[in-house]
Write a structure and sequence with these properties.
Blueprint lengths: L8 E6 L2 H11 L4 E7 L2 E7 L5 E6 L24 E5 L2 H13 L8 E2 L3 E7 L5 E7 L51 H10 L1
Parallel strand pairs: 1-4, 5-8
Antiparallel strand pairs: 2-3, 3-4, 6-7, 7-8
């Protein structure tokens, strides 16, 4: 079974990289750790934690999303609702809330969800964002809970991966056939090697 380490990066889109950097780096204090680009294309990465990043592509003619409330259904095609960033404590929530409001960004009140406390806001691209602090003594990972009064049929089967749902791998890729192809990030590696 694969061992997941977190979200390596969330890849979002912006039409204004400078406004995006000012928000995420300068207001929310996430370090800008990599930038790939050439005329007409940029892909920048900001550090959320030791293992997690958020990245932005800058594409010409991209417009901010239409603002919509977090967690409320909308008709039509949709791929995601909002991003929630974990923070260490309620003090961090208040610090972020104060910074957002001082910069004239809307921010919700602190909401008690029982297992987390959260605030909600939007970035300059109208990407709906949440910041969540775990409630002390409540650990859903060690004690999962289902309180849905009408859970989906798959949820009723339990919290762990179910065997036999998908075909078994009958031919793992042999080591001598595993190839890794060069992508856009080779320039980042080259720059790191020059610094070292």
């Amino acid at each position: 079974m694969p061992k997941y380490t977190g979200i390596n990066h969330l890849a979002m889109v912006t039409g204004d990289m400078d406004a995006t950097i000012r928000f995420w780096r300068d207001l929310l204090k996430m370090r800008l750790i990599a930038g790939i680009g050439r005329p007409g294309y940029r892909h920048y990465f900001l550090e959320i934690s030791d293992q997690d990043m958020i990245a932005f592509f800058e594409w010409p003619d991209v417009q901010p999303l239409e603002e919509r409330d977090h967690g409320f259904p909308i008709p039509g095609q949709v791929a995601f609702d909002h991003i929630s960033f974990g923070v260490d404590s309620d003090d961090d929530l208040w610090e972020i809330k104060d910074a957002l409001e001082a910069a004239d960004f809307w921010c919700s009140e602190v909401v008690d969800h029982g297992f987390i406390h959260s605030i909600y806001a939007f970035d300059p691209n109208n990407i709906p964002i949440e910041f969540s602090a775990s409630v002390a003594g409540v650990d859903l990972r060690s004690t999962p809970v289902m309180v849905d009064t009408s859970p989906s049929s798959e949820a009723q089967k339990g919290v762990n991966p179910q065997p036999g749902v998908w075909p078994k791998v009958t031919r793992p890729t042999p080591i001598n056939e595993r190839e890794i192809y060069e992508g856009e990030g080779q320039d980042v590696l080259d720059a790191l090697q020059k610094k070292g």
